Amino acid sequence: KAGVTQTPRYLIKTRGQQVTLSCSPISGHRSVSWYQQTPGQGLQFLFEYFSETQRNKGNFPGRFSGRQFSNSRSEMNVSTLELGDSALYLCASSLKGGKYEQYFGPGTRLTVT
Amino acid sequence: EDQVTQSPEALRLQEGESSSLNCSYTVSGLRGLFWYRQDPGKGPEFLFTLYSAGEEKEKERLKATLTKKESFLHITAPKPEDSATYLCAVQDNYGGSQGNLIFGKGTKLSVKP
């Protein structure tokens, strides 16, 4: 069974630009969550999507947005990039979300210069 | 406010030297506590889920236990390949944070041959 895939794996952007990251969940999983990981803050929850609806949102500015498609694939968008947005962005898929285990992808390493 | 604290931040062991990692948590209502292992440059790998105090789970050299305030990850006779950062996360049953994982900062384990 294929795991969670994320593209691209590495990305370098300039301040002020926008970026879109993609996540394909494990087949059959309907929940996709996004996390930001930095050395200082650790792993922080961004948002969760289930059946194309945002079900939960973390404490991040509106520059961070996402969506989920009918095939459960998800995209995350960050607009007007700031230096502090440099991080590893992780996607996790779960059968139904909630108490079900979340399985993480390898992440997208975003560097903002 | 939900909080997860892991200790120690870093742990160095000799091969075969057993030890325990601690995860203390504060949540309104615990839906689940999760342990993950993360290798450098990779996404977290799911290890265990614990749902109620007194529950224990084992996998190879790892054993996770749960009380009402903390969880322990016991490592018996570790090997160098057990070297990684171990992350603990909780899921709250109440309030606006339902469904998302709240992570601790992790314990970086190094096992020397």
General description of the model:
The complex is a heterodimer of chains A (113) and B (113). Chain A is mostly beta strands and 113 residues long. Helix content of chain A is 0%, strand content 53%. Chain A has no helices and eleven strands. Chain A has strands at 5-7, 10-13, 19-24, 31-38, 42-50, 53-57, 64-68, 74-78, 87-94, 103-104, 108-112. In chain A, strand 7 (64-68) and strand 8 form a beta hairpin. With 113 residues, chain B is mostly beta strands. Chain B contains no helices and eleven strands. Chain B has strands at 3-7, 10-14, 19-26, 30-38, 45-50, 56-59, 62-66, 70-75, 84-92, 101-103, 107-112. In chain B, strands 2, 4, 5, 9, 10 and 11 form a six-stranded mixed sheet that branches. A five-stranded antiparallel sheet of chain B has the order 1-3-8-7-6, with no helix packed on it. In chain B, strand 7 (62-66) and strand 8 (70-75) form a beta hairpin. The radius of gyration of chain B is 14 Å and the shape is globular. The mean pLDDT of chain B is 93.
The parts of chain B where pLDDT drops under 50 for at least 5 residues are none
Q: List the total number of helices of chain A.
A: 0
Classify the beta-strand content of chain A into a percent band. Answer: over 45%
What's the overall geometry of chain B? globular
- Broad structural category of chain A: mainly beta
* SSE sequence of chain B, one letter per element: EEEEEEEEEEE
Biggest sheet character of chain A:
7 strands, mixed
Strand content of chain B: over 45%
What average pLDDT do the residues of chain B reach? Answer: 93
Percent helix among the residues of chain A? under 10%
Number of strands of chain A: 11
